[in-house]
Amino acid sequence: MTADRSIQDIPRPADIETAAERIRPFARRTPVFTCTAINVITGATLFFKCENFQKVGAFKFRGAANAVFKLSDKQAAKGVATHSSGNHAAALSLAARLRGIPAYIVMPENAPEIKKRAVAGYGAQITFCEPTLAAREEALKKVVKQTGAVFIHPYNHPAIIAGQGTATLELISQTDELDYLLAPVGGGGLLSGTSLAAAAFSPRTQVFGAEPEEADDAYRSLQAGRIIPSENPRTIADGLLTSLGPLTFEILRRHVRRILRVSEADILRAMRLIWERMKIIVEPSAAVPLGALLGGDFDFRSKRIGVILSGGNVDLDRLPWQKS
Questions:
Q1: Domain for residue 319, yes or no?
Q2: Which among 57, 169, 182, 233 would be 20 to 30 A from 285, CA to CA?
Q3: Number of domains in the chain
Q4: Same structural domain for residues 146 and 164?
Q5: DSSP secondary structure, 161-214, as one string
Q6: CA–CA dist 107, 28 (Å, integer)
Q7: Domain boundary at 132, 151, 170, which?
Q8: CATH code at 146?
Q9: What pTM does this model have?
Q10: Residue 151, class by beta-carbon neighbours within 10 Å (0-12 exposed, 13-18 middle, 19+ buried)?
Q11: What is the pLDDT of residues 250-268, one digit of tens each?
Q12: Per-residue pLDDT reduced to its tens digit, 20-53
């Protein structure tokens, strides 16, 4: 995708509003929680948008539902396909089942068992492959050729981005004006939708991304002015391992104030705080924005801050603070 094409594909405010209407019968309007104890620790007033309570346990269902139900009957007839090791696979599988069309998912052999079971449980047809991007793409190419299914990219897709932006559209309606809004960034679909929705519907609100120090390709990409692929990322935030795409890079470059890098210790501390103080389950990737607030790289004190808790899919047999 060229830069010019990326600009043409950037969702407009009306696309996010239309996405919200399109997915309303299927997606949950997730709650916004506050926590006095965490406010005291951070010195700010935080509003947590709890996408861990979304269907499939993650924000990904918003984008997948928008992409699937936006297809014409002719386009959808042969189903949808993607490659994903996690939440997008489950989200697309459920959205396809709700529309009554097949879903074909390419997953790496080493994907967590809990995510394999979830995808299978939603009725998708799974093709396993070697755990490399090249193997994923080659397997997907074969699946699409054999089935005629429509490829729905996990993040670098206008309908996916517009769908993810509906979480922020809701958050803005659920809170008074926010000074800042933080979301995690991997491939950039959530942060792109978040920043577009904030720019359109709450222009005073500044958007920050948060990513692990050990997987900081988005930070380096925006610093360099070009996409720098992630190489051998090693982080407990396993949902944030992907590199930006041309479309998400262009949106973040235009609308995100800054990417904050978060240490593994601060990710773990944030995850435990949410579990212990808020009594809700979030996955490590969802804790990264709070980890950024705890890390102190930017002064957020005395501000009103929205935080997107992106998901809650955790393997309870392999919690990150458990000793092996």
A1: no
A2: 169
A3: 2
A4: no
A5: HHHHHHHHHHHHHHSS--SEEEEE-SSSHHHHHHHHHHHHH-TT-EEEEEEEGG
A6: 26
A7: 151
A8: 3.40.50.1100
A9: 0.94
A10: middle
A11: 999 999 999 999 999 999 9
A12: 999 999 999 999 999 999 999 999 999 999 999 9
